Amino acid sequence: MHRFRYENLSGCRAGDIVSLNKEEGAHLFRTLRAEEGDVCTLLDGAGRLATAVVSAGKTLRILELAEIPPPPAPLLHLYIAPPRRPKMDQILRQITELGVWRIVPLVCERSVSLPDNDSVNGRWKELLFDACKQSGNPFLPRTAAPMRFAEALSDSAENCPARYFGSVTERVENNSSAGVPSAAAWFVGPEGGFTEAEERSLLACGMNAVHFGNWTLRVETAAVCGICVLQDRFSSKNSVNS
Fold this sequence. Notes:
Helix content: 25-40%
CATH class of the largest domain: Alpha Beta
Oligomer: single chain
Number of strands: 12
CATH superfamily of the largest domain: SPOUT methyltransferase, trefoil knot domain
Number of domains: 2
Distance between the termini: 32 Å
CATH architecture of the largest domain: 3-Layer(aba) Sandwich
Structural class: alpha/beta
Largest sheet: 7 strands, parallel
Shape: elongated
Low-confidence stretches: none
Mean pLDDT: 92
CATH topology of the largest domain: Alpha/beta knot
C-alpha cells in the first residue's frame, strides 16, 4: 500500500475528507493514476497513520486512524559533521530507515559543509519524509540547528545518558550499567575526521570510544555503521530485560 505525507492527522477522525498537498497529490493521481476506491496510507511523521480511500474530486476519505508508540529505548541522536550534499542526502535517507530519532549538524575544525536552517527545514525535511514513506517509519527524525563542537558536547550530555563515537585506535567503555539508557548519542566527525584535540575532548567528557574497524571510514559509512552497532547492542539488552 502506497504511503503519503499528510501532516494534519492530529485533528482528523474517521470519515473526514482530506486533500494532499500539490506534490503528494501529483504523485497519487498523475504518477500512480489512482482512481476512486483505491486505498492508501497517510502519515504525519509524528507516529500517526491513517488508512484512506480515494473519493470524488481527487480527495481522500479517512477510514481509520492509528497512533504508533515511540520506538523502544534508547532513542538515537546522531551528531554529525555533514559531508557534501550528495553524501549527506544518502545519509539522511539511510538513518531514517534505521529509525534515528534526532539529527544534530555538527561544526568541527575540519568541517567542509554546513547546511543553513532553510536547508535543514526545507530540503532535509523532504528527504526525511521520502525515507519515512519508503520505509514505513512513522517518526520523522527531529532536526536541530547546527551546533559548534563544544555546544554539541553539552547538548548531548543533557539529552543522552549514553554517548559514543568511532575511533580507529581507542576502545573505551565508560557506561558500565547493564541497563538500557533512555537515549544514546552517536558522534560522527567530518570527512577529515576529528582532530586530536576534539578526540581528547570526547574522551574527557566521558564518551565511549567504539572500535569496529582498523581503517578510517567514510562519513556515510561511519554514520550508518555506528547506528547499526548501537541498535544491535541495545536490542539484545532489551530482549534480556523483556
